[in-house]
Structures are given as C-alpha cells and as structure tokens.
Here is the input.
Amino acid sequence: FDGLSRSLEKAWDTVRKDGKLSADNIKEPMREIRRALLEADVSLPVVRRFVKKVEEAALGERVVKGLSPDQKLVKVVYEELKSLMGGQQAELVQPKYGPSVILMAGLQGTGKTTAAGKLALYLKKQGLKVLLVATDVYRPAAIDQLVTLGRKIDVPVFELGTQVAPPEIARQGLELAKRDEFDAVIVDTAGRLQIDERLMGELRETKDMVKPTDTLLVVDAMTGQEAAALVKAFADAVDITGAVLTKMDGDSRGGAALSIKEVSGRPIKFVGTGEKMEALEPFYPERMASRILG
Ligand code: GDP
Here is the structure.
C-alpha cells in the first residue's frame, strides 16, 4: 500500500495550510484522494461513492474539537476506509451442530489449494480436529498437492482420485467427518481457468450435497479491481459467504482489498500473505485502514 499511502499524503498537505475544511478548500484534497484510489486500482464506482461519503462527512457537523483540518480529514478517511472494507472482522460461520464445512471455491492459480491447507492449519491451531477433502479432479496434481500439504501440517486428507465426481467425493468426505467427529471439514473444490456454467453448476451441486457453513471464494489480490467483479459473479451464482484474498505479499496495489465488500456485498474473511502454510491471517478492516494511512 506504499503507493496509496504516499498519494494520500498529498491530500493532507493540501489542507494543512488552511484553517478549516470548507466546500471550497476540500475540492483539491478530494481530487488527490480520488486519484490515489484510482491509482491503487480501486473500482471506479467504489471510488465515486467513497469520495462522496468522505466529502459529506468532512464538511458535516460531526466536528471533532481539537483536530486540525488535515487531522480531521485523515480521521474521516480512516473511518470511511474501515467501513468500505466491512467495518469489522468477518468471522467464519459457526454451525449449530456438526462440523463446520468450508467450501473453497476459485479459479485455477489463485491459490485455492494453498489456502485450503493454510485454513486447515489455522483451525488446527485453534484446537479443532480438521479434515481436508480433495475434489479438484481437473487440475493435474491438485490432489497430490493437497495430500502433500496435509502431510506437512499433519491434517488428514480425504480423496478418491480423479475418477469420482466432485460432489460425491465431498459427500463421502463429510460422511467420514461426521462419523469420526471432526470439528471442521475443508473442501478444496474443482477450479477452472475461467468462470463457466459447468464450474458453477458443479459448485452448486457440491454445495447442495454438503450444505457448507461457509463458501469462501479465493481471489488473487494481484488481479486488482477485477477481483471485485469476480467475487460479485460468484456471489450472484453460488451465494458465497466471503472471500480469501491471496498474494497480499506481492506488489498488489490494494484495489481488491478496498473494492470487494462494496461491489459484492461479501466480506474478505482471510488474507494470504505468502507461500508458507502459516501465511494466513483474518482480515481486519481497521488494521488495513491504518496501514493504508501509514
Ligand atoms: P490453485 O490452482 O488455485 O489451487 O493455486 P495453488 O494453491 O496451487 O497456488 C498457485 C501458486 O500461488 C502456488 O505457487 C502458490 O505457492 C502460490 N501462492 C498461493 N498463495 C499465495 C500467497 O498468499 N502469496 C504468494 N506469494 N504466493 C501464493
């Protein structure tokens, strides 16, 4: 977010010299904020709404005594950034009974299988008994990859090879999980290179079969504002409960993190920050907003 943070600095500078925020002197910093967000690859409608909200709030009556105009603007932008990303951390859905069932959905190469392993380790560290289920029968070696990851983090992996249909593998995996009293089942679903009806149809079938508590779409942060459109497509088609934003350690400009909730209505629940199994964190809108503001 360095680029974004630096660009925003310019916005604060433009109001620093003025005594207070007014309809007049707010124009310049708002232009800077708008430019900063667009450069960070935030989707245009999101930028428009954001800028409007910030301007209203900054000029509004919610005056905070003792703050200089630039401090006030920083505070307003912080609050709006936080709310843009969902306000507070979105937890995994807790099941009323039986195991948590988490479907990992996503396109190939986004880091879906890696995220399944990471989430398994994350839940295992919370003391849960976790089962991984390998249903990605289309990508060569995806099953082996998950088995290897499972071995590394000492989490069992249920698989039936590549000849059984994904919904059926998922069904049998869940059956095993219930029988052996697992607390959480993470299903690595079949990915594809692009969104198509077959992918969505199969995902729906798998969903119907196992009735997941969470369906998490894995998105690559490097895809910028396209990530938001992808989440919206999946949210509309299969009713996901949230996203995992991967590769946040790369040189993503931040657009995906800022656009996803607003565009799709679904929160980012976790972020992936590296290739290691430990590199997964819950997504905290507050911390992200602070980081952006430097
Ligand atoms: P899938 O096809 O979606 O299952 O993708 P994989 O899980 O196989 O991941 C694709 C590549 O991205 C692999 O080389 C992973 O090591 C890498 N990867 C996954 N998550 C992250 C991440 O958070 N950061 C980085 N730097 N690499 C990641």
